[in-house]
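Continuing the series of single-chain predictions for the mutant panel. This is the parent chain; the variants come on the following pages.
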Amino acid sequence: MKDLYLIIETGYEGIESLLYVTKSTKRAKEKLLYYKEKAIKDKIAMRKRFNKDWDKEGHPEFKESEELTEEEKQKLRDFICVQKWNGKEFDCACSDFDLGPSQLMLR
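Parent structure:
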């Protein structure tokens, strides 16, 4: 059986969402990179909406910086994972693509 790859978004208590499924190693890496960067873009967009809402409410002192630090970006990337099905179980395959988390992730 050919390996199956699942791109998932993890949370502090396990899987948050299933993002993509493929049998292609090349496609798995492409999608893993795509979703890692999408997480960053989504966070920036959320901050922009938040700041716009605070402006409308007349509370500019609560605005957040729309720029993310490298540490914030890495934390967002760390929550996107590729799992590989070997016919019996799923296991993290991020390191197979040299895209492992920046620190030990216990979930």
